[in-house]
Amino acid sequence: MSFLHQGRYTLGAIATVAILTGCGGSQSQVGAPGAAQPLDYQTQRAESIAAKGTIKVLYSFKGSPDGAAPKTPLIAHTATDSMTTFEGGDSNNDGTVVGLTQKNGKWTESVLYTFRGGAYGDGSGPTGISTFPAGSDYIVTTEDGGTSNNGTVVALAPNSSGPWTETFVYSFGGPPDGATPVGNSIVDKQGNVYGTTEAGGTNGTGAVYRMQPKASSYSESILYSFQGGTDGENPYDGLIMDKKGALYGTTYVGGTTGSGTVFKLMPKGTGYTESILYSFQGAPSDGSRPTAGVCGAPKGLLYGTTEEGGTKDVGTVYKLTPSGNTYKETVLWNFGSVSGDGAYPYGGVLVDKKGVIYGTTLEGGAGGSSGPGTFYTLTPSSGTYKEVVYSFTGANGANPYAGPSVDSKGNLYLTTDAGGANNKGAVSAYPHHPTAFTPCSQT
Q: How far apart are CA 394 and CA 372, in angstroms?
């Protein structure tokens, strides 16, 4: 079992559905891409965050039968905040759903569900978790497992007397069906579930699927199969939906230069019509290979990250602004711009109503370009952005795949694939002055 694009990294181990994933507010006009504050400012600010000790490890994973290697954010579920771990659980490391409960300032972890893998027709390697707008059920996507070992979509229901109950499993069949579902699913008000698969579809280059409620089950259909070439290819994360029912997402490769795309699927009759909103151009002037989806904001703005590209080819943060029938892209930040900066942003971003951007990088930080990753903020300032970086050290977590999540009180949560007390991954909290976040997905 292997996680997508993990080959480059030697690690212990969607959006991005968070407790509340947010994106909102207008941005200041951005000047030169990647413009940065002088090094002395960067160092001073990074030290001031570390000195405050504001990031607190809530739980370190232990490995089987506990979870290990979390790749999804922490999300809310009544009194228990939940997430998945890509590994851990059974003896085959098929992964888990875990819950974290806070009482009197202390956090307690419990395994809510243990995946059993394809031998049992169950999922393996969860990469996304989301909730229904109403009700208590969860939808989890797994990269592997299922009857054809092409991945699954699983519905789970809480059980007050013990572990959660699996109420539905859909096994992807491979082309022309989807294969290898990645990232979170989204659920509309009618209970329809939407998501992406990295492979499969008519051309084997990925697909967008929908699962419609049907009695006590679901009926699956492929809404779009990516074509490759100038079209997108291989979506690595989930979708967002606007108020008109249009779906937005990214593909890791494809487009005019093969560096990835941002796409839109618009409902038309009984089907969907796809359009490419932007094709990334790659280093050094633009980002490339987005692994995270987009965060939608008021006025049609879209924000996101690219894992590679930019002036140092270690990733970017970008904004897409509607301009007539097209979109204009602006690179807001080039990683590697200053010493101690992050590298390779794998997860998505949150944007508050003041325009401050919050995100993580898989590597980089105080340990150099191959360090164990960062949590960063980008604050608009005089036509550019000021970056503040918190560097993971290993002991407090390492290599965050997921972007941050935020609760209703404005507290931010971070999950890391590795590090922590047992080097199996960790969950951390970053107390934050509450600032309103607008949900990225406006259904």
A: 7
Q: How many helices (H) and strands (E) does the chain have?
A: 1, 35
Asked, for residue 123, whether it belongs to a domain, the answer is yes
Q: Is the pLDDT of residue 15 over 50?
A: no
User: Which one, of 60, 108, 58, 57, lies nearest residue 80 by Cα?
Assistant: 108
* Whole-number pLDDT of residue 42: 35
Structural domain including 175 reads 39-430
Q: Which letter does DSSP use for residue 418 in this model?
A: B
Closest CA to 390 of 413, 365, 372, 368: 365
User: Phi/psi class of residue 365: alpha, beta or left (left: φ > 0; alpha: ψ in -120 to 50)?
Assistant: left
For 176-315, strand residue ranges (E) read: 178-187, 193-200, 207-214, 217-225, 232-233, 240-241, 247-251, 253-254, 261-268, 271-279, 287-288, 295-296, 302-306, 308-309
Residue 271 sits in a domain whose CATH number is 2.130.10.10
Alpha-carbon span 228 to 149, nearest angstrom: 24
Quickly state the pLDDT bin for 79 (edges 50, 70, 90): low
In the predicted model, is pLDDT for residue 293 greater than 90? Answer: yes
Question: pTM for this one?
Answer: 0.87
pLDDT tens digits, one per residue of 36-63: 322 233 333 433 344 444 788 999 999 9
The number of domains in the chain is 1
52: left (phi over 0), alpha (psi -120 to 50) or beta: alpha
In a domain, 306, yes or no: yes
